[in-house]
Model the fold of this input.
Amino acid sequence: MNENTSVGTDEWTIRVQDVFSRCGDMLMRRIAQRLLKPRNQWPLEELVERSVATLTNAAIVDRRIAELSPAAQKALALIGLSQQPVWNVGQLIALLALLDHVEGLQPVLDLLESGLAQPELPAAIPTLNEFETWLGPEGIASARLFVHPAVTARAMAVDFGFPTFTTRTIDVKAIRQSDGLEWLLRTAVAWQHVANEPLRLTQQQTLFKRDQQRFQTDIVLGAPFADQLVELPDVGLLSLQLALAAGLIESEGGILRGKPAPDLWEQNLLGVLLELGRKLLTVNFWNPLTGWQSEGEDVFSSIAFASLLILRDQKPGEWIQASSIAEHLYERHPSWSAILKKKKESATVWLERFFLGIGYPLRLIEFVEEPSGTWFRLGDVGRHGWRGDKAPVLVAEFRQTLIMQPNGEIILFRQGLTPELIGKLSRFAIWRNLGSACTMELTAESVYHGLETGLSSADIQRLLEQHGTHALPATVLDSLQRWASKRERIAVWPAATLLEFSSESDLETAFQRGLITIKLSERIGIAAGGEEIDYRHFRLVGNRDYESAPRKCLTFDRDGLTFTVDAAQSDLILEAELGRLSEPVPGSPPGARRYVFTPVSLKKAGEFGISLSLLEQWALDRSGEVLSAAARLLFHGSGGAPFNYRMRLVVEVPSDIIADGLVQWPAAADLIDERLGPRDLVIEESNLEAFRELLKTIGVEMNSGVRVSE
Amino acid sequence: MDLVSDRSPGTRLAVKLHRRVCLVLTDDAVTAEELLARKKLSQEVAGRLSDRVLLLRPGRLEAVLDELKRMGHTPQVVGRAGKAAE
Done:
């Protein structure tokens, strides 16, 4: 699914810079040769900088555009008119074919080689040596390129050379107009679904089957339009795509999430309609005949944009039939006829559904019914957006537009709805029905969600009062306050910045200076100002990042049980762990933090659910050493095996070499029961005399009860 | 202990900085006890800084939020929508 591409001019410059920086030496020099025409042999870095800067030099860009092939010039003009800097290569080639340019990939390569367009490079291509390298794995069906807006701004004055279509001038007294809210409302519902439950995408960046079905069968998203002229398939999935394209939903790391407070809702209705009209051209995986298509060739944006361009090309006041446009496009599009299974009449149905189901509700298209059929032209928003005509005035008629019921239901009249109101309501109330009057519902969960997006309970109450036709029912006020106060009971800080002071009085001083917002314990508080702390007030004695791996901050004594904490390296998690695993060593020198594992402390750790393997990992993480045998013994005991004691006769020999010799000498080995240590051998009492006699044969005396000397 | 500091306003205070700490702050100790009594939540708690403050294990935020919601709480997630706690 395509992500939102609304970024500022500076960001496009950064994107261009990134692509140029990733181009190999030969390729970059080839691009610069056409774009810059350098007279000197500049270093690559300078060549990149100069090439990027050239794209905002109108005079040079005009000359470079003039040097392009006619097809490449038209491609640039198409991208400029679409007001969408990012285009799918396959769709662009199809659009050129609709303008009778059947050169295939050549105009696209011409644009790329000229440096006026750049490929969207995946991370898998760190260095680009040839454009074919990029097109190869991506394929023209999914590869996308972009053009800096400063370039497209210079390229739009192009005659696309459309033929003359059969048009009519029709005297229409009152043109039927949509209120422009339909797709705004549906994208708001789609946003609400995703904001409440983020969607994980497949590896192919499309929806899982269950999510696809959820959006296909959603009652609210699939409700008939207030001014329904045709029935569209899979409206829910198209709404989701539009919401994503318009920036209500963001895609990050393969997960779709609703933005807390999308910018789209801050615009007026005209701005929203223009934006949705632009973003419509990025829709893929959907068509007006069969709806959602997760695979197969996609033609939506090329057909939709070409049909709008043909409408734009007609004289003011002229109306045209969908069949005329369909016939023209059907004959020229590289794959449309195959997708429609050679049914030419389906092309007209496709276009009529697009015009009446999407274009008309967005006020991009107007229509009139005549005995000869339905005739179309650009609507007031479409004429303003694509032809520069005067901006239509779209203002909500009433401010008081909702009725708040005591049971939490909200009835909304569309005449007073604005993008801002729809946006704010969507943040704290659930859409239940869309129609000429819409309904929403306030629930504990929805209000909680609204508060999480940054609204306060006072904001919610004020909004409902300002736009309500009646005073808020007491039950609703009571519920709002109750739900809001419940939220105050628990605050979760995902990434707090804490300051740990050396004394309680230091914390109090910082609190009085306003450097601490909340005191958490006697010595610890949450820093004011979030991540950035004011170093004029502080001297750092330690710095820990809790999303990094734990630091080594313990040193064990030789006993393997007692350890010293390095206070500068330790963290709060360690403090909590120490209490669970060990006991402070009494009588430690001042300032030294010493702890010891005891049978009691390690038994308590086991009761907390800490296993031997966790303890081993903890010791390794915190000290860099493996857990000592003593600690293991205290924690684990003998693993259930009993200890035995008995009296044994031990022969101590003067050195380990002699002990080795005795163990190796078969005659002696037969009499030795066990070797206990380097110099200690166990002899069965019954073998003692035989062992003594054997030693005599090598001239060794064995005494009783006297330790042998070295 | 006298909590009124005698430090001059320009004195730099010695501090240890703890960044990106995940914690739960409850409005009273009873609520914190209630959370600790929940087995699935107590597993995610690395320690208790005070009677109202629980320190969470790194990377376990979503699991804690899910469990809190399952318990019927509506926790305020500070900083997610760019809004600080009151």
